[in-house]
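pasting for the record
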Amino acid sequence: MDEAAKLVVLVQSKWRQDGSGSMDLAGVLKFLQGTRSLLGMKSGDEPVHASDETKAAVRELLRTPGARIRLITATTASEPLAAEVEQPITELLAQLNDLQDVEPLASHMHFGQGALFNAVSERNRPTVDIDLQMLDWGRASDPQKMYYGRVSAAEIAGWFARHGADLFAENIRVVIPRSDINEGILGTVVSEPDRFMYYNNGITVLADSIELGPGGALNRDVGYFKLTGASVVNGAQTVSTLGSAIGTTHEAKLGQAFVLVRCIEVPSSDELGRRITRYANTQNEVSTQDFAFLDPEQHRLVRELQVLGFEYVLRSAEVPRSKDTTKVIELRQAAIALACASPNIVHSVTAKREVSRLFTDSYAALFNPQTDPLRLSRAVQITARVDAILDDIERESDGIRAGIAVHGRRVIAHLMMKRMGQAFLTSPESDVPAAMSDLEARVSSLVDALESVFPANAYPGNVFKNNARVAELVRDADLS
């Protein structure tokens, strides 16, 4: 697993002494069966053949937005996979990638004799050379050569069109498939291209060497630069989104927008390059959640929750003053709990599919003048208790039951609070301790009901992100 890249890699290998033939169907089917079990797609009593640590680590990573799965088949044989061997792999990928309007969850790579040898022997990253024109540029020489200035968005989009993901060979995150960020970047290009540079954080490019063209040395209005061994270490989302506009109706707008770019000359072997990459991706990140701090309703909830004995933490980096974690409610925690408590199941699906959308599309429905602090605090308590119960079920289960416990928890919390009723959540007279005491049995019963009607060969991580499929599942389980 690569936690930085949010990537789970599952490998099936086959050694053939004579180098002939390829992988057999039986071996691949067994590999795919184990993959399904690990991902929570397989029903039945057969356990997952993996350690508890591996199962927990994989499931934890797959909870993370943007996580991906890569299946690898590798063999010392020279022949490619036969069609009948490749077909079940293709079928599994289709099942894992059946969620529309998102980046594919899973991919497959096959390494035969030649590709396997090259993968082992060729470790150098692809070399990317960039010629760029920079306006209103400046420079610094000490302690490292750096140039900075404005670069046309159209030119940057061209980098992505020519080099693709090779541009991000040294970036720890490559491209994160978060549609809220992509839509925000593209929306600014379309609606306010002349202000794009003021809204965007810019791009950082490292290069083995940077050469300034003779013409650019005469003035600082326009400079022509050649970057050898270049890599975008911060701003991959901006570059890829601008590149995606090529060939669309938005392409014409790219010529009206500029991006602030800084280019730093650092040899690839220099430790400084690794430090720049690290700090450029971990400092000053602002998410959609952080803008909720500007909402007066959030500060009202801070005051009213304090009266109820809770500390409501609005800022993601803020350290709570209270030492009692049961009396601390964080903003993200509150948003998820309110989404689950909503009478509309769509919000709980959004909480699973893309939490950031709770602070955009769903925000007004969750946080408004009618948001009740008592209801919020109880929703947080119930959601946390449901999560703890499902954690136990996940540890004790395999196959679909474990998959439901991992991926269905937002919908299960919604169903639980729907059964309790809105009046229970808002009334000061409600007996919350009594409701909590039998929550374990009730949650287990919901998991049983969902498991009994769960569709065959479906990946729970996709099912619980799809409104139509969740509605069908709840209806089939007679839980609506």
